[in-house]
Amino acid sequence: MKKVEAVRGMSDILPEEALLWQHLEAEIREAVALYGYREIRTPIVERAELFARGVGEATDIVHKEMYVFPDKKGQMLALRPEATAPVVRAYIEHGLYAKGGVAKLYYIGPMFRYEKPQKGRKRQFHQYGVEALGSLDPALDAEVIDLAWFIMERLGLRREGLFLRLNSIGCPEDRPRYREALREYFLPYREKLCPDCQRRLDENPLRILDCKVPTCMEIAKDAPKSTDYLCEDCRLHFERLLGYLDALDLAYELDPKLVRGLDYYTRTVFELISRDLGAQDALLGGGRYDGLAEALGGPSIPGVGFAGGMERLILVLGKREVGDRCYRIITKPEVYLLPVGEGEVAEVLVDM
Length: 352
Ligand code: AMP
Description:
Layout: H1 15-34, E1 38-39, E2 45-47, H2 48-56, H3 60-63, E3 68-70, E4 76-79, H4 84-93, E5 103-112, E6 124-133, H5 138-154, E7 162-168, H6 175-186, H7 195-203, H8 214-220, H9 232-247, E8 253-254, E9 266-274, E10 282-288, H10 292-295, E11 303-309, H11 310-323, H12 345-351
């Protein structure tokens, strides 16, 4: 009989490798706890509408990659493709904002996207991520970026092997002017763009900037930069963030093409890239999402965060490098108690 196999793009994590996962998860949990983040666990299944409204209908993640299905009553559900929208939904639903101040939340768990599987790109993959909600201060953006570097260093990745791509895409007030400038720029190239980008040109030309098709990338090289279209507040926010990063001695490369594949981002966007990975080189990505809570029907509360891929971490770290450092994980019993007679069995059970 034909064997039943795992679904394409979804992997088993066998005991040997699971040790490494446990080690990395433990390190990440400890690192984020030191920055004041507390864990939140949200369901793997959400209403599809959450992502259509949160991540954006025209994004690849929602438009092409989301696992969507009706339940028995016909309600459209989705396997979560990312966790920021679910975390913000839970934050609103449970009134976590009522306490005031900044809520610092983190998660680790599986996400699902119907992408073309390849090295470092799965259909079920795992993300760890942080969300800091409740402050517009650029110092919080800087702290979140600092935490990303802190996690990398804790996991044993050298700074020289990584770099930070950074950009500001402004606020919704800046967006129409920038979108118009992009549309004007790309319009003469319409026929040369890939079919997806031809659609993007009408729906959201920003998305053309992160297309990976070589001809589109070539055309996008001289496209207008978002930082040239920032309002005074957004410009100041970015300037102050850069000042904080300099004070923290954190290097960055300004990249006007970085827009990220999710619609909720405002102002700051960033990616931490590994120089040692091939095509799928982004270890983590994030940014500010000041309009997301409101878009999900909540109060207007700003936020900033990032999400990183566990599978990519494992790829860059390799087994050997961390092998010796898996000191936290107890892999086998350290003490054995042997009852020498019938009478001691209960005693041994109690002492265990
Ligand atoms: P995103 O949610 O698209 O901003 O992605 C954040 C991070 O999650 C990326 O930088 C990757 O490390 C990881 N990631 C995203 N999609 C996948 C995937 N399909 N397979 C493995 N890792 C992924």
